Every structure is written in C-alpha cells, then in structure tokens.
Amino acid sequence: AYTETNGLFGNGDMSDFIAKLHEKSRFQQIYQALEVFGRKAHYILLASLLDSISKLYGKLWNDMNSRIDMFRQKAEDPTELAKKIDKVKNDLDIIQNKLSRGVSNVVRRYRGDEGIIKVEAEEAVKDFLSSVGKIAPDSDTAFTSLERLSLKKIDQFEELQERLQHQVVEEFDKELVALSDKSSIPFESLKPDFTDETFKKIKEATESKAYETRSFEEGVTFKKTHTYSEYVQNRHFDIIKNDILNRLTVLKNSLTDNLGEFVDNIRSKYITELSNNANTKKAELDAIMEAKKTAEQIQDIIRELTSKANELSAAQTDVKKIKGGISKYVQHNN
User: Fold this and answer.
1) Which residue from 1, 228, 295, 315 could staple onto 76, CB 3.0 to 4.6 Å apart?
2) Coil, strand or helix: which one is 14?
3) What is the pTM of this model?
C-alpha cells in the first residue's frame, strides 16, 4: 500500500494510503466475520453442550437397558411361581389330611373287633372246626386226619401273619406314602411250638382220659354188678381236638397281639415319614414364596427402570431436535 501511494508510482497522498491500506488488509471483511461469529458463538457453544447432553443421555440409556436385561435374566415369572405355590399347598394339604385322618383309617381297618386281623384270625379257627367236623372220629384214619389238619392249620397261621404284615405295609404305601427305608420295617414270623411229635405227645398224654367206666350184671335171682374201663376212640378224638383247639386259640391271640403291635409300629414309621415330607413341603413352600416376593420386586424394578429408560430416550430425542434447530439456524445465517 505504501509503495503504491508513496513510492515511485504514488502521489504521496495520506488519504490514498489509508484507503489502500484498508483494501489490502481486508479489515472490513474480518470485522464482519468477527461480528457474525460474535452473534453465533453462544449458539455454537449451546449446540456443543446439547451434543454432550445427548451423548450422556445415550450412555445412561444404554446402562439402564443393560441393567434391565440383567434383571430380566434373573427374574422368574411370578405367575408361574404362584402356580407352584398352589401346587405345593395342595400337596401339603394332602399330607396333613393323611396325617389327621388317613393313618387312623388304615389302622382302623386292621385293628379292633371288626378289624381285618381279628376277623381273619377268627375265620382261621372256624375253618379248623369246620374241617374237623368232617372227620369221622371213630374211623381208622381219624387221628391221622386230625394230625394232618392241625399241622396244616398251624402253617396257615404262620402264612397269615406274614401275609397280613405285608398287606398292612402295602396299604399304608398305597393310602399314605411309600416308606423311604423299607429295611426298618420290623417283620416278625410266628413260631408256634407244634410238630408231628407234639401231636404224638398230646395223643399219648390224653389216652388215659379216653376210657369210660362200663358195667354189667350177672345172675337171675341174685344179680351182681361188675364194672370195667373201656377205651372210647370218639372220646379220645374229642379230647385231642379240644387240646389242639386251645392251642390254636392261644396262637390266634398271639397272632392278633403281634399284628396289632406291628400295625402300631408301622403307624409310627409312616407318621414320621409323612411329618418329614410335610416339613420338606413347608420348606419348599417358604422358598417359593420368597422367590415370588423377590420376582415381584424385580418386576417392579424392571418397570421403574423401563420408565426411566423411556424418559431418557424421550429427553435425548428432544435434545437432538433442539440441537438440530440450532445447527440449521447457525448454517442459515452464515
């Protein structure tokens, strides 16, 4: 500017120098640019701030959704847990009903005057009497038949005890619950002291009682009475039969008592088993109810976090709109 106004080709005019200096320095354009920047600087800063806020919202939204996913993975369905609770409560009611009524019902079917044990034991004795009644006491085979029948009936009593013991256990299993440890059941065998040798001893010991006193008279005018003893097989047969019947009655009573004690012992074992099952079900119910409570709390947390995430998403959308509007304004007024 100096060369052009004051040098070889200039006229040395100061106003020309100033004008040329303005032209060369472009002060006017710089001033105008600074004026525009000054007017838009706060909008640019605001846009930058809004961009940072939008990114922060985005980060918070991602963190929030990560937490929601984590809780959803942990969460159990409260509805399904409620179904489980109903089922366990029903199972518990069944167990309590078995404890309060089921055990007594099974015991009642076997114990008492009308119980299976006494009825079948009495029936066994009646069957013996009925079979003995078919034997002709004065026949040559009367004692052999009585012996064979007696030994058979003794065996049947032994089988009856064993069968009823297993029958009791099976019915308790069916009506109540299967025992977890069957080895603890105190099965017992009836051991009557009666063999063919026993029958022989009874026969020999009672033979003297089988004699009856008989009498006869001699003479016409002067009669004389004579007495004598005569062996009566029918009498001997009845004596042996009654002896064996007494033994069977004692055996019947022993069987009834033994099976009664067996039922009581089994009853205690099944009550213990049912009580243990009830305690297990109660613990299971408590655990499920606690899980349901936790699941409901997690559902509340998920709902709250989802609501917050939606609020963050909406806020981020609003920030982006405002930033977009500011950016358009700044670009439009360049």
Assistant:
1) 295
2) helix
3) 0.64
pLDDT band at 1 (very low <50, low <70, confident <90, very high): very low
Q: What is the Cα–Cα distance from 75 to 300, expressed in whole angstroms?
A: 11
Strands 224-231 and 211-218 turn out to be: antiparallel
Instruction: List, in sequence order, every residue forming a beta bridge with 228; answer none if it has no partner.
Output: 214
What is the sign of the dihedral through the CA atoms of 96, 101, 104 and 106? negative
Q: Could you read off the pLDDT of 139-193 as tens digits, one per residue?
A: 999 999 999 999 999 999 999 999 999 999 988 888 887 777 777 777 788 788 7
User: DSSP character for 209?
Assistant: G
Q: What is the DSSP letter of 25?
A: H
| φ and ψ of 321, to 5 deg | -65, -45
Angle at 20 between CA 14 and CA 26, to 5 degrees: 135
More confident residue, 27 or 102: 102
Check if the beta carbon of residue 291 is closer than 8 Å to that of residue 8.
Answer: no
Which distant-in-sequence residues (6+ apart) come within 8 Å of 238 by Cβ?
137
What pLDDT, on a 0 to 100 scale, did the predictor assign at position 300? 87
